Amino acid sequence: MTSTPRPRRLAAMIAAGTCAALLAACTGGTSVGENPSGANSGETVDGTGPVEGSVRLAYWGSGPRIERTQAVADLFLEEHPEVTVEHENADFAPYWERLNVQASSGNMPCLTQTQGRQLNDYTTRGALLPLQPMIDSGAIDVSDIPEDVLDTGRGLDGELYMIPYGAAYDAVVINETLAEEAGVGLPEEGYTWEEFGDYLREAQEGLPEDVKAANLGGGLPNYFIAYVQGTGQDLFDGNQIGFDEQVLVDYWNFWEELRADGVTTTPQQSSEEPDQTEQRYVAQGRVMVDNLPGNALTPAQTTLDGLAPGQQLTSVAAPWGEAGQGNALFTSGFSIPANCDNAATAAAFIDFWINNDVAGQAFASDNGAATNSRHLDQQLEDPELPDEKQHELGLYQEIVEREPVSIVYPPGYQANFEDTFTRHWDSVAFGEASVEEAAHAFYEEVNAALAAESTE
Amino acid sequence: MATLSTPAATAPEPASHRPAAPGRSRSLNRRTREAIAGYGFLAPWIAGMVLLTLGPMAYSLYLSFTDYDLMSSPNWIGLGNYERMAADPRLASSVLVTLKYVAVSVPGVLAFSLGVAMILNKGMRFLPFYRAAFYLPSLIGTSVAIAVLWRQVFGGDGIVNAALGTLGISGQSWIGDPDSALWTLVVLNVWTFGSTMVIFLAGLRQIPTDLYEAASVDGAGPIRRFLSVTVPLLTPLIFFNLLLTTVNAFQAFTPAYVVSGGTGGPLDSTLFYTLYLYLRGFANLEMGYASAMAWALVVVLAVFTAALFASSRYWVHYGDER
Amino acid sequence: MTATATSTDRAARDHSAGRSRPPRQIFGRRVVRNRLLVGLVRHATLIAVLTIVLYPLLWMVGASLRPGNEAFGTLNFLTSNPTLENYREGWNFGQLNFSRFFLNSLAVTTLCVIGNVVACSMAAYSFARLNFPFKRIMFALMLGTMLLPYHVTMVPQYVLFNELAWINTILPLTVPKFLATDAFFIFLMVQFIRTLPRDLDDAALLDGCGHVGIFFRVVIPLSLPALGTTALFTFINTWNDFLGPLLYLNRPELWTVTLGLNGFLDATGESAFGPLFAMATLSLAPVVGFFLVAQKLLVEGIATTGLK
């Protein structure tokens, strides 16, 4: 296998490759990337029609989430025995991977779970159906969902593409036991970022040697969103960044100063920390304060009970800014793809999920507080609701009362904003760039990427 | 009796070099029959290539000249992707990371697996148990559990730091630090050396023991025996392992994805080339760019493979030489 | 080279002279008498090295025996209150049993092993022993398929399988194996087969065997180590494959073990690490078992080429 001179073999490979490429480009493979609307291009789908046949239901999560989702689906099937529901679930990251591959061949499930952050990746490419016609026709009833919560399901063009069913928020989780031992207690309502910094510094003096007051938060996008919301500036202006560079500089300086004062974990420690709640430092009693999703309070407490029995976690809202509260809502909901061939059944399912009381109880706000305010009230009145859940839902209500600003994410948000944010923070934290340099580099990179994304 | 043949610089002769059969018609017939047999045995592979491989491969080459984003029709943009690649700083850094990884882990894996294979090749009690035990890490190497396990070893509170602590050295988080994160992945690659070891073991087993006896009776020590008996006869497999380990190292994806949580962090220190390719394709929805990256890699690997094959003439000894 | 002639002659002379040869010399000039000590030292060293190498796995087994929320408490792999709760919880995963996932994995893996062994050995025989037009181009093409990262062919292949309506079946995972798409194993077996001298082929030819006969009577029996290696690696790769099942096996009833394991992780809610470690430990069992069986074939198979 060695006596052929190299040029001849290379030439043969190139020839073979070119022939095959020409063949493929001319004949097969053209169905890839064709208008994925497939079944529904051109017509308005209003979701009315017979509820029958089968639908695929895709969602992320494991264990308890799967059980609850199946419970709701089973209840739906009791009412519509002629329907079959096929479940497709995966962990959060592989979920989107698979969804993208499915989208590429027009094979997205009729009931696709989405979030505001990724929504516009699909809406700007026409992969999802506008849902307003289904509301207008009465197929889906959203009268119990607060207006600004419903708005989180809108795309860049203002059309509604997702019906949110669960509203999550990011909370500041505090280890109450450690806080009391350190002599600082909990921050007061309305506390500002400056007060937050002082609170942490004071706490650090009273904490044991190996416990830090805060986990380094400079690289957490959601923490930063709370900061921006507090300044009153917009996160995005269309498909460009809507806030001033100075906001980012201030935010990163805040954390750099805390780090220099020894109040936070080291950059190595924070970059090594995995995403799962059970492995976060605050759930293991190694830091006193951190930013976690609101519904992580329950698993975090369970973990803490095993590692440091007796310690109690609680959650408070994010610090306030000059313009008001920092918390934003991150909603999850259902969308119907344009390639769905059974929109009527999908619409009926969504309507059931949102409005049916028994279903609401079965799901029990597992993915953020139920957006249906009637359901939320019912759950809060339930005496058997566990304490942590009670606290989580109560905090949600407070946040909603303060009318959080709804964020519209441009396409490519998750890839272009979130990952870039962490990367540039790391360059600051590991000493490779100054705060100003990194903030500027971040600004340029994200704006360029978001602009490129939208011209495709 | 078996002889140690001199390293032959001759290429393997075509199989049709047989004693000439009387009459031209008979030898043509034989050649045709051989060709038919050749194609016959190759039929499944040919079917697979045509139906399942060539199409997608060619299509991905086509995509590298487009701006395909997985959901809209691809538009032809010529060399646009390749031009962007040349100017992309993250791509350059991912190339560097990958090269470092290949340069260190390939020799590491080969040396380690050959070493352990040689130790295990001697008859000893419980040998099957040891073999299986050393193979275990490879079995779990790509599992989701690896992320957790590797943190238990190299994390800030991992066993390595605990061990260093007993020696009085205070360690850092090896996984969380951009300067050391890549080397933890190199160790991970060497840790999963089982497959390479097994291949070497199988090859070592095929070396007739009387060759060793003969050499040792002649006064050859262990090192000389290794160099004159083991290595020459093992060269086809060394070649194979070298090629495959290198190709795999260039294409490494899962270790970086799993350990860095899919980010290539911290600070892109574990951003392997294929991980970056994957992120551009599936996270940024820039499938055209990702395809261009992939084909650039193919060219590099093809050149490397061709060079390795060309060099094999000088150091690999096959048994089917005459 | 006359080394062998000399040594054999000497041995023959010694034998015929009734003299026994001096004891084999190892470790230089000194003959080591205490074999037991050497053996003990070797075993001790190996076990020490093994403990280091296997530490992560030992930790995982230990964690699987600890109560769920204590999984990460310690670096030790021994525990004070062992429990089998994780195994029970993990096995009864939601509405489906983990046994279902094991069966699915077993089915897919078995088919893949058979497919690869059959198809790749055929292709390898063809490349290694037979001559036909365009052979070199095709060999280069085969090698070329190994060089392309699979992520870029993933999407066109998915589209293809979607058009064939093979999604949610095991066909996309198994049929390619029967069509020898795993170039790695073709190449591996080519290298193995090429180490076999052709004299046996010629002998068989003289006996009247056609190429098919040579394949079944000469090449296959002598390639058992290579076939065993192929079977083993295919088993392991398929057993641990995550991306393939993720894309093509959407319904939970079809899930393989890897998807099942991933199902314990939830970055957005509650992960179940205890059951994850328990099931991951269990999922090692079939692979280890297969390895123990295959390694006999692999390494203790056929010894020498018997050319004397």
UniProtKB/TrEMBL annotation, chain B:
Biased segments, Low complexity type: 1-14
SUPFAM superfamilies: MalF N-terminal region-like, MetI-like
Range of residues in the leader sequence: none
Major localization class: membrane
Location(s), subcellular: Cell membrane
Residue ranges constituting the ABC transmembrane type-1 domain according to the UniProt record: 95-310
Keyword set includes Acetylation: no
Keyword hit for Cell membrane: yes
Family classification: Belongs to the binding-protein-dependent transport system permease family.
Protein name as annotated: Carbohydrate ABC transporter permease
Natural source organism: Georgenia deserti
